[in-house]
């Protein structure tokens, strides 16, 4: 019994760094993510949209078939699970955010551990959050790019292990990567660029080297992992007769309606590389870890031992970058897309630190490990605050601009929480509401309402490209089919005076402001009365939110 206890104690002591990583993940995410308890509310339109559809899924309302939304089903499942924890906020997503950062730190630790000793690898991993929480790419948090950050790092880790082992990859690694391909495929397939090149290149390499057993492992075990990820959803869509709706929305609509560029395939690829090149020059740290870091990796043997490994890493990086922004013009890319560039930026930084530790013979021992690791955590936290100032919109700073523009010392709540309480108090049972003209503003979240119409929100699509969206919403208002309507205007504009932007006709503008309310004011005010309004700042725009109740 004593021997067993000693072995358990020894096992735990060797893995104490995992608890340290977890504490750091909770600490850093608490200050960076809007899903944190330190924040009033997660204002992100996309995150609230995922939450609304996920909550609807938990109540038997099918994505793609019953409500229109174009992300992958795993996104809605995760948010649906979060809604079971708290149905009126995105607080339930906080553990998923923490898990994502924890796994990223763990994988960076595993990478560093291949080249240096354990305590040094821990110290290096502690600095990793700087890359994952880099604002504005990590904006509100809870993006698909952030949730899959660790998955992309794991692919690079698999490549680095393969490079050290004559590119023989274990069955478990192929199964895991197959699963992650399936997971990414059903979350956001534009993040698959690195995997596509990795699989094609490794298959070609094995054929060239006539490594037939390795080809069998690649295909068989990867297929198993992919089937584990995709199979349950295929069964679900078949059982609910919604497979056709899934294919139409997730693939056709994404590829035809959301794509901004009409250029040729080759021209779109060049556009993507132009955007990536511009990204690498936007910030000194990004330039240092990106462009200069990539050059350093190519001309040194610190990371990759073979020329094939270096070439494959570069190809994965380039195709990953191209896929992420494929079909977009420079200046029209949502910055949170570019967070998916950062896993490849981590690697030069990791090896720069490894080489510095070796060059200067840095020793971390049992005598100084506590001081070194805690000071490294404090330094990392300081660096994160330098690249992410989200905490300025938290409860630590009451009545900040994201909550209210009123000059008052009386504690205020943002429009989402204020309106949600009113709707819940004045509705019999679950409220019914419509978010008119903009992407989900969070009022479905706080009110507890479920989507009662296919187009429960608007999208970043011009009216001319998909007129059925706003036309359908107007029809709901004319028939007064919901009890509540929530919409927004720029601060100072009345509902019957807001025509929309004269330069971007029929499209949502900055601040998630809808494309105009004047044209619907007559039927709206005929069937609904204004209950209240609230003005606050959102994405550098002063926005007035309006709550209307059916007469």
UniProtKB/TrEMBL annotation:
<keyword id="KW-0812">Transmembrane</keyword>
<keyword id="KW-1133">Transmembrane helix</keyword>
<feature type="transmembrane region" description="Helical">
    <location>
        <begin position="116"/>
        <end position="134"/>
    </location>
</feature>
<feature type="transmembrane region" description="Helical">
    <location>
        <begin position="341"/>
        <end position="358"/>
    </location>
</feature>
<feature type="transmembrane region" description="Helical">
    <location>
        <begin position="218"/>
        <end position="239"/>
    </location>
</feature>
<protein>
    <recommendedName>
        <fullName>Glycosyltransferase RgtA/B/C/D-like domain-containing protein</fullName>
    </recommendedName>
</protein>
<feature type="domain" description="Glycosyltransferase RgtA/B/C/D-like">
    <location>
        <begin position="75"/>
        <end position="235"/>
    </location>
</feature>
<keyword id="KW-0472">Membrane</keyword>
<dbReference type="Pfam" id="PF13231">
    <property type="entry name" value="PMT_2"/>
</dbReference>
<feature type="transmembrane region" description="Helical">
    <location>
        <begin position="90"/>
        <end position="109"/>
    </location>
</feature>
<dbReference type="InterPro" id="IPR038731">
    <property type="entry name" value="RgtA/B/C-like"/>
</dbReference>
<feature type="transmembrane region" description="Helical">
    <location>
        <begin position="311"/>
        <end position="329"/>
    </location>
</feature>
<feature type="transmembrane region" description="Helical">
    <location>
        <begin position="180"/>
        <end position="206"/>
    </location>
</feature>
<feature type="transmembrane region" description="Helical">
    <location>
        <begin position="16"/>
        <end position="34"/>
    </location>
</feature>
<feature type="transmembrane region" description="Helical">
    <location>
        <begin position="285"/>
        <end position="304"/>
    </location>
</feature>
């Amino acid at each position: 019994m004593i021997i067993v206890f000693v072995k358990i104690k020894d096992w735990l002591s060797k893995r104490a760094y995992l608890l340290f990583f977890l504490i750091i993940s909770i600490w850093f995410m608490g200050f960076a993510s809007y899903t944190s308890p330190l924040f009033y509310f997660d204002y992100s339109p996309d995150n609230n949209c995922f939450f609304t559809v996920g909550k609807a899924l938990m109540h038997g309302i099918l994505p793609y078939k019953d409500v229109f939304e174009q992300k992958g089903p795993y996104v809605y499942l995760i948010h649906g699970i979060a809604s079971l924890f708290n149905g009126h906020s995105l607080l339930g997503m906080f553990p998923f955010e923490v898990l994502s950062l924890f796994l990223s730190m763990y994988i960076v630790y595993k990478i560093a551990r291949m080249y240096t000793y354990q305590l040094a690898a821990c110290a290096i991993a502690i600095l990793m959050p700087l890359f994952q929480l880099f604002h504005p790419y990590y904006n509100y948090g809870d993006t698909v790019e952030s949730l899959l950050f660790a998955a992309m790092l794991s692919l690079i880790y698999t490549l680095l292990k393969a490079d050290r082992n004559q590119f023989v990859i274990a069955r478990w690694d192929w199964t895991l990567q197959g699963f992650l391909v399936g997971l990414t495929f059903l979350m956001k397939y534009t993040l698959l660029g690195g995997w596509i090149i990795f699989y094609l290149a490794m298959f070609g390499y094995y054929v060239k080297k006539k490594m037939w057993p390795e080809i069998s492992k690649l295909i068989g075990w990867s297929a198993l992992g992919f089937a584990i990820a995709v199979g349950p959803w295929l069964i679900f869509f078949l059982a609910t007769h919604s497979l056709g709706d899934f294919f139409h929305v997730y693939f056709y609509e994404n590829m035809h309606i959301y794509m901004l560029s009409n250029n040729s395939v080759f021209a779109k690829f060049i556009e993507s590389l132009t955007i990536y090149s511009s990204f690498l020059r936007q910030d000194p740290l990004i330039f240092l870890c990106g462009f200069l870091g990539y050059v350093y990796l190519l001309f040194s043997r610190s990371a990759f031992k073979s020329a094939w490994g270096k070439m494959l890493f570069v190809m994965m990086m380039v195709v990953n970058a191209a896929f992420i922004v494929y079909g977009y013009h420079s200046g029209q890319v949502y910055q949170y897309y570019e967070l998916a560039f950062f896993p490849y930026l981590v690697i030069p930084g990791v090896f720069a630190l490894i080489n510095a530790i070796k060059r200067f013979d840095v020793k971390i021992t049992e005598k100084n490990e506590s001081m070194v690791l805690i000071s490294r955590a404090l330094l990392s936290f300081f660096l994160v605050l330098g690249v992410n100032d989200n905490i300025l919109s938290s409860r630590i700073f009451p009545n900040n601009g994201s909550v209210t523009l009123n000059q008052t010392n009386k504690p205020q709540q943002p429009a989402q929480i204020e309106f949600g309480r009113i709707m819940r108090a004045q509705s019999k049972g679950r409220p019914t509401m419509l978010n008119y003209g903009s992407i989900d503003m969070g009022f479905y979240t706080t009110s507890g309402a479920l989507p009662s119409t296919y187009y429960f929100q608007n999208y970043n699509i011009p009216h001319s490209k998909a007129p059925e969206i706003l036309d359908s919403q107007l029809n709901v208002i004319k028939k007064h089919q919901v009890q509540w309507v929530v919409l927004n205007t720029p601060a100072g504009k009345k509902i019957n005076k807001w025509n929309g932007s004269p330069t971007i006709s029929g499209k949502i503008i900055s601040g998630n402001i809808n494309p105009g309310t004047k044209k619907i004011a007559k039927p709206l005010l005929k069937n609904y009365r204004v209950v209240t309004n609230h003005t606050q700042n959102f994405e550098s725009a002063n926005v007035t939110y309006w709550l209307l109740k059916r007469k």
